[in-house]
## 1
Amino acid sequence: PSTVIQCGAGPVSIPVSLTGTAPWTLTYKKVSGGVTTNVIATASQSVFYIKDSPVASTTYTLLSVTDQFCSSTSISAGNVFNYYPNPSITLGTNPEVCFGTTSVSLPYTATTQNPDQYSITSGIRAMSGFTAVSNAVLGSSPISVTIPAGTAAGTYDFNLVVRNSTSTCNSALVPFTIKINPLPVVTANASVATICPGTTVNLVAAPSLASYAWRVKGSTTVLSTTANYSSAVNTTTTFEVTGTDSKGCSATAETTITVLPLPSVTITASNSSVCAGGSVLLSASGAEIGRAHV
């Protein structure tokens, strides 16, 4: 015998075409939740409907038919009818990520009817370059969704469908959104950019963000977690600051402090020995012309 599959919630009405002479007596088997029940029904019309309101996956099998004169267990094809409720999935919070992220995690908290596949398509506010997903394997939460590189900041619409590959039944469309937040614009400024060794420099980051982290470029050591940082600088150094906004998105800026070498000064005297009250000419050399000599 062949098998008919119906998906979806609500009552079922299975037509059975009868031949012979009324009235008829039908016997069919109902298997639901591991429980088997044989049902006997009578019909006065040549088309009889097996009506039921199943709440779980249910199989109906027509076993025998008897009319006014004869009985038969020779049932035409189509005597097995499988009813499966549609699967469902409950999603968690819509994901938010920062610009430049290439994948997001879509959490879900519950499923029904054992879905083992999922499909994702774009919604009204479509994400350019997104590749639709069709009947991928549904693992444990979360579902990973790929974001095309360079996707602009904004909110994008998607639809999720889960499927039970055994029953071939699909869930209803489950909408969700992915929000891509822009990165903050961070600047790093110094009170003076060119100094002598040991001079203290004040560094300031802007704008006002949730947190900051100052470092020497290339180092992992955090020097300060505030917008302002002061330090005596002895060698030419590039400082970088990472600012993080309230959405958790970060950007980095840098500033370089150039440290000039101290001048090498030589002093010579016209005479190394003089009488009391005598004059001597002192000459200095080595310093840059135009700079003060002290």
## 2
Amino acid sequence: KAICFDGALPFNKQTTRLGRLEKARALLERYRKQRPGPFKPSTPANSHSSASALEPSIWKKSFPALRHKDQLPPAPFIVACVLDDLRNDWKSEYRVLVVPGEADSYCASIARTTGAAVVSNDSDMTMYDLGSEGSLVLLDTLDLELGGGVHHDEKRQRPFLKARRLHPLNIARRLSLTTPMGNPSLLRFGFERLSDPSVPAGTIRSRFTSFLSAGVDEAFENFCKLYTDSKEVEGAKAVVNALAQLDPRLSELYCQYNCKEYVIHPPHSPHIYMPLLVEDPTRDSSWTYGKDEIG
């Protein structure tokens, strides 16, 4: 059992990351144009309400839809706050790990070796080899049921969780989807879907009987490498221990100096991405007052 956090992202994902930052900046800029005055912190209706009273709201299936102008970027330190809270939760049965890379491959490795379920909204997890028992539980399908059920015993009267569970190996077997080696896999299906998102599932299945052209075959091989590069927590234990108490941004900086796959070579230099703060985007960012000026 473990909760894994990204400790670093590969340099080739820089464009993706910058694109996300720009999208968040544009969202903040739009918000400020609609509300040019000072930010007003939201105040809960009852500031003395207990955590137990707020619990049911976590499982609400529908929330009032925000108008586009009412949307703000994600809170800048939400990941760091969640990470610190989990680290300090002595009652938790789960290990909290900041891994030297993207968490997906480490989660897949844990699921493959233990038969655990990966809880995530990232459907890409079905591309990994999760083993014969490993599966993906979609986070946004989690639902808290209060009692009831078929068996009306004492245990069934207590609250319990329900969710949609995807078993990639079983899905591949039922759809007769295999790798060129004959092993059940959703990799070819995922590749075809990525190449043409509009194509029907039936058409994708029919393509499995045909060979890929030379150029497409190379692209497919590169796609497979993203999901077949197995990474074990035990194999990176020394680095995982070093990252144990670091913020994910500092862990990424650490990896660029200490992990060969993340070392940045000239003309590039080690880099760190600061979160977008909720502030007026037409003025200097608060981050600019913390950097040294070199003259």
## 3
Amino acid sequence: DQAVDHVALALPHLLHVDGDGAGRDPELGGVAHQIGGIRAPDLVLAGQAVDVGTGAADPAALDDGRPVATLALAALTRTEDDERPREVWARAGVLVNELASPALALNLPAQTDTPAGVLAAAARSRGEPLHLSLRALLRSPPRWHVAGRTVYVCENPAIVAIAADRYGVACAPLVCTDGMPAAAQRALLEQLAKADAALRYHGDFDWPGIHIGNYVIRRFGARPWRFGALDYAPHAGRTLVGEAVPADWDPDLAPKMADCRFALDEVNGWLDFIERNGSGVAIRPERMEIVRGL
């Protein structure tokens, strides 16, 4: 893994020590060796960390604030990605809280030769939403059958519930970021992007929603889905507050939002669309692309 290799090479310089990791602080002295020992596709649990000097187990070695963790995170973090520590560790093959904040998905097609693939196939056969943990996604990465296929990405879990209730097995593949994507969501979106899925993103029409949209579109090569200036038509709602965030995909969106001064929640937009166009799978596919096979 190139990122990990770069950390192992960079840490001696960050620490101002020799290449063998010798330094003034005995705990810092072994940082380069600890990080250098992590190699994809191997996965390391944070609780399995050891003290390099003594060889004794040190489950807290990678906790926030510890010198090892602080220096490694500083070297691994990509400032443009707005990552939290758990996401940074996951990229480096270190699982921290691997069962927390699972990714929510609906109708993702996968090969059934991994635990996550079996779960995804079973849920898809019934049109039921599925939670996928970071553990399931990284320990035995599923093989997603999404090459050349549209996978829709939404911001709010309620959208997945609405889609499952309204369309069930007729719904196109759908993934939820649940706000700014956490480690499991990022792992899943990266897997789908690498499997050549055509990701289409929609979120809240507010400044945090635009910020999340910029990230998902930039980081995973997604395209906007009903998420432009022409789709923003609020007639009421909560007041739009905060500093304006330009939308990378549509230069007209932020000025229009700032002028109207209304935030449009993703869920309300969906419900309004369904009310105006009918319910169930009778919605014309050219109007509601998420319904497939009509």
